[in-house]
Design brief:
The structure holds 2 protein chains of 2 kinds. Chain A is built from no helices and 11 strands. Chain A is an all-beta fold. In chain A, strands 2, 4, 5, 6, 9, 10 and 11 form a 7-stranded mixed beta sheet that branches. In chain A, strands 1-3-8-7 form a 4-stranded antiparallel beta sheet, with no helix packed on it. Chain A starts with a strand and ends with a strand. The model of chain A has no long low-confidence stretch (mean pLDDT 96). By secondary structure, chain B is mainly β. Chain B has no helices and 9 strands. Chain B starts with 8 loop residues before the first strand and ends with a strand. The chains are: A mainly beta, B mainly beta. At the A-B interface, β5 and β10 of A face β7 and β8 of B.
Chain lengths: 120, 110
C-alpha cells in the first residue's frame, strides 16, 4: 500500500526558501500517476499548490506560481517542493499526495503532513 | 475566499442523517466530477468520495455523494460520534486549470 512521508525543516525565516521532500514508499513513482502538494494554514482550509507528472510535467496554482517549484527524482522515488521569498502567510501544514489523474482525479493517499512555520 | 462554497458548520445527533452542500459554478462543479475528503481532528485529509458518488474501499456505505448541475452534496446516514470531523469538497476548475477545494464544513455530533 503506497505511503507518502513529508520531510523538511519546521522553521524557515522570512524571505528565505522553504524546501520539502515527499518520499514515496511501496509504489514506484515511475509507474505513473501525478503527485501533488497541498497546504493548510492554521485553522484554515486546503489550498492546492502544485502537481507533477512522473515524467516531469508541472502544474502550478496561478496564485503561487511565481514562487513555487515542484520537481521529481524517480531514482530516489521522491518529489520535492520549493517556495521562495516566504512570509508568515506561508505558515501552514504542507501535505504531499498522489493524484490519480490530472483533471477529473483525486488526491489519495495523503502524507501525514508537516508543519512549516515562517518566523525570524 | 474559496471557489467552492460550503456551510462552515453542520451538526446532528447519533443516528441522524445529515447533508453537507457544496456550491460552485460552470467552470468547476458544472464541468467536472466532485470528490469529498474527511479530515479527523489532528489528522491528514482522507478520500471519502470520488467521482461524485464512488466510495473507496473501506469507506462505510453510510457515506454517499451526489451532484446536480453546479452543486454537490455529501450525505451521512446513521451518524456516529466518530464522524465528527471537517469535510471538504473538491473538484477541477477549468479557469484555474487546477484542483480547487471548498472552505470545509465542521461536523459536530451532538
Amino acid at each position: 500500500q503506497v505511503q507518502l512521508q513529508e520531510s523538511g525543516p519546521g522553521l524557515v525565516k522570512p524571505s528565505e526558501t522553504l524546501s520539502l521532500t515527499c518520499i514515496v514508499s511501496d509504489y514506484s513513482i515511475s509507474s505513473g500517476h501525478y503527485w501533488g502538494w497541498i497546504r493548510q494554514a492554521p485553522g484554515k482550509g486546503l489550498e492546492w499548490i502544485a502537481n507533477i507528472y512522473y515524467r516531469g510535467n508541472t502544474y502550478y496554482n496561478p496564485s503561487l506560481k511565481s514562487r513555487v517549484t515542484i520537481s521529481v527524482d524517480t531514482s530516489k522515488n521522491q518529489f520535492s517542493l520549493q517556495v521562495s521569498s516566504v512570509t508568515a502567510a506561508d505558515t501552514a501544514v504542507y501535505y504531499c499526495a498522489r493524484r490519480t489523474w490530472l483533471q477529473n482525479g483525486w488526491f489519495d493517499p495523503w502524507g501525514q503532513g508537516t508543519l512549516v512555520t515562517v518566523s525570524p | 475566499q474559496s471557489v467552492l462554497t460550503q456551510p462552515p458548520s453542520a451538526s446532528g445527533t447519533p443516528g441522524q442523517r445529515v447533508t453537507i452542500s457544496c456550491s460552485g459554478g460552470s467552470p468547476n462543479i458544472g464541468s467536472n466530477s466532485v470528490n469529498w475528503y474527511q479530515q479527523l481532528p489532528g489528522a491528514a485529509p482522507k478520500l471519502l468520495i470520488s467521482n461524485n458518488n464512488q466510495r473507496p474501499s473501506g469507506v462505510p456505505d453510510r457515506f454517499s455523494g451526489s451532484k446536480s448541475g453546479t452543486s454537490a452534496s455529501l450525505a451521512i446516514s446513521g451518524l456516529q460520534s466518530e464522524d465528527e470531523a471537517n469535510y471538504y469538497c473538491a473538484t477541477w476548475d477549468d479557469s484555474l486549470n487546477g484542483p480547487v477545494f471548498g472552505g470545509g464544513t465542521k461536523l459536530t455530533v451532538l
